[in-house]
Write a structure and sequence with these properties.
Layout lengths: L1 H22 L1 E12 L8 E9 L8 E8 L9 E7 L2 E4 L3 H23 L12
């Protein structure tokens, strides 16, 4: 059962990313730096950038400096399209969302098949002495 819930959780995360990227406020962020992420996330980077939130600077907008999820070292110095969520920006790439959805569906299907086959949740029979 926990495996099925984990799969559904991954699917939920993927759907959440798609919704955020498709409905979030659009902006352009200039990527200022990228650092390797913590140990255990090989190939991941934590990038920061700046963007204008709240409209034009001439009409009350303000410059925000924050994390840009999905940016890479090759983006440093470039201005890229992002969607905004509070003090964070997200690239418009759907790669992570698609991976979460695919893995989540796979895990949920495997869990459902295991449940159907009776492999999960059944206690082993006790040997009679």
């Amino acid at each position: 059962m926990a495996l099925a819930l984990a799969g559904l959780g991954m699917c939920g995360g993927g759907v959440s990313l798609v919704v955020q990227r498709e409905t979030g406020t659009r902006a352009r962020a200039t990527i200022t730096e990228c650092q390797p992420a913590d140990v255990g996330t090989h190939g991941s980077y934590e990038c920061t950038g700046t963007w204008v939130a709240g409209g034009s600077l001439l009409k009350g907008g303000h410059v925000v400096r924050g994390a840009v999820e999905g940016a890479e070292p090759s983006d440093v110095g470039r201005s890229i399209e992002v969607t905004l969520s509070g003090d964070r920006a997200h690239t418009t790439s759907l790669t992570t969302a698609i991976i979460l959805l695919a893995l989540g569906l796979f895990v949920a299907i495997v869990a459902a098949l295991m449940l159907r086959a009776g492999q999960v949740g059944r206690r082993p029979r006790q040997a009679h002495v």
